[in-house]
Amino acid sequence: xxxxxxxxxxxxxxxxxxxxxxxxxxxxxxxxxxxxxxxxxxxxxxxxxxxx
Length: 52
What we know:
Number of helices: 3
Largest sheet: 3 strands, antiparallel
Number of strands: 3
Strand order of the largest sheet: 2-1-3
Order of helices and strands: EEHHHE
Radius of gyration: 10 Å
Mean pLDDT: 96
């Protein structure tokens, strides 16, 4: 089952594993929301994961 994280801007990060979706959302945050990247931790990201 795919894992997703929906960003507040509408971007949807997808991955087959928790690590893949976290890497995808961090990459998005790095380019589009760099200030957020510094404030959001690993536990936050894990809480945001939804399973499709």
